[in-house]
Specification:
Layout lengths: L4 H22 L2 H5 L8 H5 L10 H5 L5 H14 L22 H22 L2 H28 L3 E4 L6 H10 L5 H7 L2 H10 L9 H7 L1 H8 L4 H10 L4 E3 L3 E4 L1
Antiparallel strand pairs: 1-3, 2-3
Helix pairs in contact: 1-7, 5-6, 11-12
């Protein structure tokens, strides 16, 4: 199969924007519950800050074609970077019987091409393009998102049990750390601006390793040092912004 890498890059980038768009809608109580009139919230969505973090990597790499197509796709990545590639198939697309490269070397090459792809996408990824994507695709994607939201809401019931309000912040921190709450809650509840400021003091190179990478790699440290809210503020945030409801004798329930 022949690939136009420039075109494929744009297609994958649009898939990333679609992923981000659904993430914004699904995790915002007002947007989630008003999908039928989602266009009324277009400006809010367009002004929601988006970031290219490492949590996107698996999603992106799963978009790469598999097997033979994956090889030829990565060859196009290599060509775009003036990088060599191993010969695995002949000009007719038949597997070579005697490969010059061993399996381990090919795996290293594939990994390197994956990194090139991620770097190329990160360079192109920006807020203005996302805003344009929302402008042109929001209504088109509404039926798909409506179906996906039904599944998302059905599978996303969350219970935060606590006996005393004073313990709420600690309970939520522990749930994030043990995986009971999705990692996205860490992104909401950690002050990423303060984290970035601290990283800048150590001359962090943000296009290589940003605050989202740091949050993922050192989650416990970031949660304990840069948590935004005390328990009262957190309760208000979870109810108003995340759609939780107080259930007497249990705590907070969503879904």
């Amino acid at each position: 199969m022949n690939f136009n890498y420039k075109l494929e890059l744009e297609n994958i980038l649009n898939s990333v924007y679609e992923y981000k768009l659904f993430e914004i809608i699904s995790k915002n109580k007002d947007l989630n519950s008003n999908i039928d009139s989602i266009s009324d919230y277009k400006e809010i969505i367009q002004n929601t800050k988006i970031y290219f973090g490492s949590e996107l990597y698996d999603f992106i790499l799963n978009l790469i074609p598999k097997d033979k197509d994956g090889y030829f796709f990565r060859c196009e990545i290599a060509k775009s970077h003036n990088y060599s590639f191993p010969r695995v198939y002949d000009y007719l697309g038949n597997p070579l019987k005697n490969l010059n490269s061993n399996k381990f070397a090919i795996q290293l090459w594939e990994s390197h091409m994956n990194n090139f792809l991620l770097e190329d996408l990160e360079i192109k990824f920006n807020q203005n393009d996302f805003s344009s994507f929302v402008e042109s695709h929001l209504e088109i994607l509404k039926p798909k998102f409506k179906k996906n939201l039904n599944e998302y809401n059905e599978n996303s019931k969350i219970v935060i049990q606590f006996n005393s309000l004073d313990n709420l912040a600690l309970t939520v921190k522990n749930m994030i750390l043990n995986g009971s709450l999705d990692f996205s809650y860490a992104q909401d509840l950690v002050d990423l601006d303060k984290l970035r400021d601290e990283m800048s003091k150590f001359s962090a190179t943000f296009h290589i390793y940003n605050e989202f990478d740091k949050l993922e790699d050192d989650l416990e440290y970031c949660i304990n040092k840069f948590f935004k809210y005390n328990s009262n503020e957190l309760l208000n945030f979870l109810i108003k912004e995340k759609g939780f409801k107080i259930k007497e004798g249990i705590g907070l329930i969503k879904g």
